[in-house]
Amino acid sequence: xxxxxxxxxxxxxxxxxxxxxxxxxxxxxxxxxxxxxxxxxxxxxxxxxxxxxxxxxxxxxxxxxxxxxxxxxxxxxxxxxxxxxxxxxx
Length: 90
Ligand SMILES: [Zn+2]
Known about the structure:
Layout: E1 3-6, E2 22-26, E3 35-39, H1 51-62
Antiparallel strand pairs: 1-2, 2-3
């Protein structure tokens, strides 16, 4: 197994729908599909070389606001966060 979940002391922000987010690290080299990603039950980020970049994409995708971040222009609010994987298992 090259993929493993990284446990954080502080929980990652949940997605728009309130799913718990997981940080997954793929130990392969970046060119071979490795990297950091964040996923929940309904979405995931692309892989990034740095976890902070994955977290930034996660926050953008789910419009999670951080104190230092300025509000996004309205024109950016349409396309993000609408990717869904497969069906919802229940
Ligand atoms: Zn979700």
